[in-house]
Amino acid sequence: MDVTPSDVHVESARIQRQIEDYLGLGPGNLLFEFRQLEGQTRLDLITVNPRHHQSFLFRYETGSDRLEALRKMLTYVQRYRDEESSYTIQWRARGDKELQTSYFRAHNVYEALDKLYYGRDLTTITVFSVVLNPSS
Asked: How many angstroms separate the CA atoms of 127 and 61, rounded?
């Protein structure tokens, strides 16, 4: 059976919906950004906070194509709570007066900060605290 581009598109959309449903995030709060990198397809899964409209890296995966990257991401979201620690980061964007609190899952504090600073200049956000949350 031949796989058509339409089949790939339908399967991609189905997996993206599964990821959104699993994470409990509505449309517009999760962005799927694909790019080619050294012969692989990289998927950056980005969350957008509806309150302060800042975006952060949730996770990236690479695969031989979009579908493989999406399938790896789905597997990750189904098990990440068991494999990564929870961090609370308090920060403020340059020019804002209000302190923000964001939560990240990561293997270590550096990975949590990488997710916070994803796609931005390091001078645009001031971090006030990073706390490893007790595991439940």
From this structure: 26
pLDDT per residue of the chain (136 residues) written in tens, 0 to 9: 555 778 888 999 999 999 999 998 877 899 999 999 999 999 999 999 888 888 999 999 999 999 999 999 999 999 887 889 999 999 999 999 999 999 999 999 999 999 999 999 999 999 999 999 997 5
* Contacts within 8 Å (CB) and 24+ apart, 78-83: 78/22, 80/105, 81/105
Catalogue all structural domains in the chain, each as residue range(s) with its CATH number. 1-83 (3.30.160.40), 84-135 (3.10.20)
Measured between alpha carbons, how far is 33 from 45 in angstroms, rounded to an integer?
6
Query: Can you say how many angstroms the Cα of residue 124 is from the centroid of all Cα atoms in its chain?
Result: 19
Measure the CA–CA gap between 121 and 71, rounded to whole angstroms. Answer: 31
Look at the pTM and tell me if it is higher than 0.85. Answer: no
Torsion of CA 3, 79, 76, 4, to 10 degrees: 10
- Measured distance CA(16)–CA(14) in Å, rounded: 5
